[in-house]
User: Which sequence fits this backbone?
């Protein structure tokens, strides 16, 4: 009876592995277009009592998306490839953990961040219209920077991700399932012949 149970478990294991591989290739993909905001620069007068030309100090910011890009926890067993593209020139995009928004001011649709206050894990000033990124499961936000301007700039950022089962994990699970099936069948044949 125990051998039959091992056999059934092995077969179920193989079916689950095959199903997981199909599910990862089918379900763990997504794409979207988000609005990136590059905040306007602020002019601050150093001396409010005696304004003189040239006393104004200009402070410029980075913008962080209000939307969150979530890489699901199921992706831990997958290879995840994220491609991020934008066409506006003179700007860059970076990726930060969603929790980095706590360092910024909430402006409703986006966050206004002091330059260099946000720790980026991909992209940034050296990105040039495209980022290819292999994330871990978690929640992330886009950060926009670039041209310093007196007006708010908004532009589209396209992203898509595709996840596929890690080949090493898939092979290991299939080998274990196969050993369980073959082993239990061999034991049943050996017992029957005795």
Assistant:
């Amino acid at each position: 009876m125990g051998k039959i149970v091992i056999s059934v478990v092995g077969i179920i294991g193989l079916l689950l592995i095959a199903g997981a591989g199909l599910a990862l290739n089918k379900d763990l993909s997504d794409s979207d277009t988000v609005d990136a905001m590059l905040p306007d620069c602020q002019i601050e007068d150093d001396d409010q009592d005696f304004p003189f030309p040239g006393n104004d100090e200009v402070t410029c910011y980075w913008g962080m998306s209000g939307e969150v890009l979530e890489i699901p926890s199921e992706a831990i067993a997958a290879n995840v490839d994220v491609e991020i593209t934008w066409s506006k020139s003179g700007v860059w995009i970076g990726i930060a953990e969603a929790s980095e928004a706590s360092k910024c001011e909430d402006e409703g649709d986006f966050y206004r961040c002091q330059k260099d206050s946000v720790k980026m894990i991909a992209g940034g000033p050296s990105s040039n219209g495209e980022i290819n990124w292999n994330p871990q499961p978690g929640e992330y936000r886009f950060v926009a920077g670039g041209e310093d301007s007196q007006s708010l700039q908004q532009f589209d950022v396209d992203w898509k991700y595709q996840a596929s089962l890690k080949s090493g994990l898939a092979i290991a699970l299939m080998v274990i399932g196969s050993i369980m099936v073959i082993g239990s069948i061999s034991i049943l044949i050996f017992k029957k012949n005795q």
